[in-house]
């Protein structure tokens, strides 16, 4: 519960910065990512090295890693019960991403809109989505 409160506070802060025209920097995105990781890493016993690997398109094919990805994406509200929340995620990207990251990220999201279709297991679905996003945008940001 405490982690959810921290995450909600951070999202409100980031939106506030954007509304104030202060913009969201890559460093602020990284801080937000660290917060989400602080919720999911202990839960799935992921080392920093393992967690960092996802941002470098290193995808271990095991249940724990897949469920870690699902935890991150659910906490970012990009996944819900195994389904990609495309519209909500696109809206967040348009508001929160630094301008130089928006176009390529949204283009990858459009390409991966159906990446979770037909996948029953939420962990498998999240993993499939992340792999698709990375294959469509090699610099895709994943905390």
TrEMBL record:
Q: What family, per the record?
A: Belongs to the PBP/GOBP family.
Which biological processes are named by the entry's GO terms?
A: olfactory behavior; sensory perception of smell
Signal peptide, first to last residue: 1-22
Gene Ontology cellular component list: extracellular region
Q: Where in or outside the cell is it found?
A: Secreted
* The protein's name: Uncharacterized protein
Q: Which Gene3D superfamilies would you find in this protein's record? A: Pheromone/general odorant binding protein domain
State the CDD domains in the record.
Answer: PBP_GOBP
UniProt cross-references to SMART domains, sorted A to Z: PhBP
Keyword set includes Hydrolase: no
Record key words, sorted = Secreted, Signal, Toxin
């Amino acid at each position: 519960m405490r982690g959810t409160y921290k995450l909600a506070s951070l999202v409100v802060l980031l939106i506030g910065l954007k509304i104030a025209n202060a913009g969201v920097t890559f460093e602020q995105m990284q801080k937000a990512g660290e917060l989400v990781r602080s919720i999911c890493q202990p839960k799935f016993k992921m080392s920093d090295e393992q967690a960092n690997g996802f941002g470098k398109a290193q995808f271990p094919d095991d249940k724990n890693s897949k469920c870690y990805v699902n935890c991150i994406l659910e906490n970012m509200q990009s996944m819900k019960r195994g389904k990609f929340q495309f519209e909500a995620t696109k809206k967040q990207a348009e508001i929160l991403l630094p301008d130089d990251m928006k176009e390529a990220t949204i283009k990858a999201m459009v390409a991966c809109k159906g990446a979770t279709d037909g996948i029953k297991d939420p962990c498998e679905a999240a993993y499939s989505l992340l792999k698709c996003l990375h294959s469509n945008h090699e610099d895709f940001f994943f905390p």
